[in-house]
Design goal:
This protein has one domain. By secondary structure, the chain is an alpha+beta fold. α2 runs parallel beside α3. It contains four helices and three strands, in the order ααβααββ. β2 and β3 form a beta hairpin. It has a three-stranded mixed sheet with strand order 1-3-2. The protein starts with a helix and ends with a strand.
Length: about 120
């Protein structure tokens, strides 16, 4: 009986540990292709905008987060084109004073919210 209780308790704890994993869509959600797909279909209001420092001058770290990885020019263009394709998202960003041409990166959190990085 003690063994059955131990196995049942272990199974319950394991299922609780993995319960939050289902909130993240996939491990590739922030790859260039993954984020572009997300941006084309995003309909939520949960986003924030962060300034990034000048990637070409690594000494200038006072203007933004260090956590925003640099994307290639092609990836940045893909992000901007995906936002343009989602008119409601482009409109909401515009209402927040964000010029889509200044967005250099975007990331999706596990809770589905987005962070846009602007220069």
């Amino acid at each position: 009986m003690h063994r059955v209780l131990t196995i049942t308790l272990a199974a319950a704890l394991s299922s609780l540990a993995f319960a939050g994993v289902s909130r993240a869509e996939s491990l590739g959600m922030n790859t260039a292709q993954g984020i572009e797909q997300t941006l084309r279909t995003f309909h939520g209001n949960e986003f924030n905008v962060e300034q990034v420092y000048n990637w070409r001058n690594r000494d200038d770290e006072t203007t933004g987060p260090r956590s925003a990885p640099e994307r290639s020019g092609q990836a940045v263009h893909g992000i901007q084109a995906s936002i343009d394709a989602n008119r409601s998202l482009a409109h909401r960003l515009n209402n927040e004073g964000v010029d889509v041409r200044n967005i250099v990166n975007a990331e999706q959190a596990a809770d589905g919210s987005l962070t846009f990085y602007v220069r």
